[in-house]
C-alpha cells in the first residue's frame, strides 16, 4: 500500500472515530432535562450492585457529581464524586457493611453502587459541583432478612396479593436465572420484590406502570407504607436440566500429562482452578464464588454431591450447620472433620472454581467473646447454671411448704 493510500485510510478512520464520539455526545442533546425535577423509581434486593445513568445534562457540562439524600429536602446530603484524585472502586474490593462512600464509582456520567444495603435507600441526584440537579432517582433497597423461598416442584405458590381498600400489594418477579448446573439436575430461581398500586401516590415520582411503585418508594405515604411492610421479598426455585457445552483443553497440556503418566502414576487433572484452605476444627467458614453476584445463578457441590437449595438454603430448617445464603455464599458453622473435601462452585451454569478444604484439630487458640462459638458456650453455661439455681429454689420451697403443713415426710438432700 502506498503512502498516499495509507494516509487516506488513517484520515478516514480518525474521522469515523470522531464522528462516533460526536454521536455519543449528541445523545444528551436528544434527551432534554425536565423543567421540573422528577424521580425515577428503582427497586433492588440487598447486596446487589446497581447502576443509575444520568439520562440528561446540559451539553456544556463535561463532568457530573452525584448527591444522596435520605429524605427529600434533608439538610444532610452526601456528595458522591470520583474527582480530586479519588480512585475508582471495583466490586471485588468491596466488603459487606462498608459505608456507601467507599462502595460507589462514577463512570461515563453513571453512578455505580456496589453491594447496596437497605440503608442506601433514598434519593439520588445527578448534577454539578454547584448543586444544579439534572436527573434524579428514588431508590428502594429491600432487605433479604425476611425473604421467603417457595419451591415450584413441590407445588408451593408465591404469596397471595393483599388488598386493603384501594391499596393493592403484590410481588413482581424478575426473569428466571439460567440453570445453575449443566449435565446434571440443577436449579434456577427468580427474585420477587414488593410493589403496590394505589391512586394516593405522590405525582412527583415517575412510574413505569400508572399508580405502581415499589413498597419502599418515597412516593408512598407513610400510612400506606406501614400497611405494606409485612409483604416480604420472595425467591421462587424450580429444577432444570441442560446439556454442557464442550470445552477444549489448552494446547500442550495433554503432552505434559502424558509425560507425567509415563514417569509415574497418572496424575489427577483438575478441570477448574483449585484453591487450598486449612480450617481449624470447630471454627466457622464462609466461601464465596469468584465473580458471582446475588442475581447470578450460583451452585455448590461437595466432591460429587450436589448441595441443592431445597435442602441447604438458609431458613429451610431451623438449625442448619451448612447452608447457602441469599447472596450465594456457602456457610459452614462449627467445622467438623467430615467437612473435608473439595467444594466446587458453579456460576451461570459453568463450573469455574474449586476449594479444597482441610480441617486441623491441633493447636491452642485464645478464647474471645468475639468468636461466635465462644459466645454460644458462655450462653449455654449460664443457662445451665440458671437451671440448677431454679431447681434448687423449687426444692427448698417444697421443703418449707411440707414443714409448715406437717403433712409430708422428711426429705433429706
UniProtKB/TrEMBL annotation:
The chain crosses the membrane at residues 377-397. Residues 34-142, 267-345 form the Ig-like domain. It is a single-pass type I membrane protein. It is found in: Membrane. GO terms for cellular component: membrane. It holds the Pfam family V-set. InterPro entries: FAM187A/B, Ig-like_dom, Ig-like_dom_sf, Ig-like_fold, Ig_sub, Ig_V-set. Gene3D superfamilies: Immunoglobulins. Keywords: Glycoprotein, Membrane, Signal, Transmembrane, Transmembrane helix. Residues 1-18 form the signal peptide. PANTHER family: FAM187, IG-LIKE V-TYPE DOMAIN-CONTAINING PROTEIN FAM187A. Belongs to the FAM187 family. This is Ig-like V-type domain-containing protein FAM187A. The gene is LOC105997539.
Amino acid at each position: 500500500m502506498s503512502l498516499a493510500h495509507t494516509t487516506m485510510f488513517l484520515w478516514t478512520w480518525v474521522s469515523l472515530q470522531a464522528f462516533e464520539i460526536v454521536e455519543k455526545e449528541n445523545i444528551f442533546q436528544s434527551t432534554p432535562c425536565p423543567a421540573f425535577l422528577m424521580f425515577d423509581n428503582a427497586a433492588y434486593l440487598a447486596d446487589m450492585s446497581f447502576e443509575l445513568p444520568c439520562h440528561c445534562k446540559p451539553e456544556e457540562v463535561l463532568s457530573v457529581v452525584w448527591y444522596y439524600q435520605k429524605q427529600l429536602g434533608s439538610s444532610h446530603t452526601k456528595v458522591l464524586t470520583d474527582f480530586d484524585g479519588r480512585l475508582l472502586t471495583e466490586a471485588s474490593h468491596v466488603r459487606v457493611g462498608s459505608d456507601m462512600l467507599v462502595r460507589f464509582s462514577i463512570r461515563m456520567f453513571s453512578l455505580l453502587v456496589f453491594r447496596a444495603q437497605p440503608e442506601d435507600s433514598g434519593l439520588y441526584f445527578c448534577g454539578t459541583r454547584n448543586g444544579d440537579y439534572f436527573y434524579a432517582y428514588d431508590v428502594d433497597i429491600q432487605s433479604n432478612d425476611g425473604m421467603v423461598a417457595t419451591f415450584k416442584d413441590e407445588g408451593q405458590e408465591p404469596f397471595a396479593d393483599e388488598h386493603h381498600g384501594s391499596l393493592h400489594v403484590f410481588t413482581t418477579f424478575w426473569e428466571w436465572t439460567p440453570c445453575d448446573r449443566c449435565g446434571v439436575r440443577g436449579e434456577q430461581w427468580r427474585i420477587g420484590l414488593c410493589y403496590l398500586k394505589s391512586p394516593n401516590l405522590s405525582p412527583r415520582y415517575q412510574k413505569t406502570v400508572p399508580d405502581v411503585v415499589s413498597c419502599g418508594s418515597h412516593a408512598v405515604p407513610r400510612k400506606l407504607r406501614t400497611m405494606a411492610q409485612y409483604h416480604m421479598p420472595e425467591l421462587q426455585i424450580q429444577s432444570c436440566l441442560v446439556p454442557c457445552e464442550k470445552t477444549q483443553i489448552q494446547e500442550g497440556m495433554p503432552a505434559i500429562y502424558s509425560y507425567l503418566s509415563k514417569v509415574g502414576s497418572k496424575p489427577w487433572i483438575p478441570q477448574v482452578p483449585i484453591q487450598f484452605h486449612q480450617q481449624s476444627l470447630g471454627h466457622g467458614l464462609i466461601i464465596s464464588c469468584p465473580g458471582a453476584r446475588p442475581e447470578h445463578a450460583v451452585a455448590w457441590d461437595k466432591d460429587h454431591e450436589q448441595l441443592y437449595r431445597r435442602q441447604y438454603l438458609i431458613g429451610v430448617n431451623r438449625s442448619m450447620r451448612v447452608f447457602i445464603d441469599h447472596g450465594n455464599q456457602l456457610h459452614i458453622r462449627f467445622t467438623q472433620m467430615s467437612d473435608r473435601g473439595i467444594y466446587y462452585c458453579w456460576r451461570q451454569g459453568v463450573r469455574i472454581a474449586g476449594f479444597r478444604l482441610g480441617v486441623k484439630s491441633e493447636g491452642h487458640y485464645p478464647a474471645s467473646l468475639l468468636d461466635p462459638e465462644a459466645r454460644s458456650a458462655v450462653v449455654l453455661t449460664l443457662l445451665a447454671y440458671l437451671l440448677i439455681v431454679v431447681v434448687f429454689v423449687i426444692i427448698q420451697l417444697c421443703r418449707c411448704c411440707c414443714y409448715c403443713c406437717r403433712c409430708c415426710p422428711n426429705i433429706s438432700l
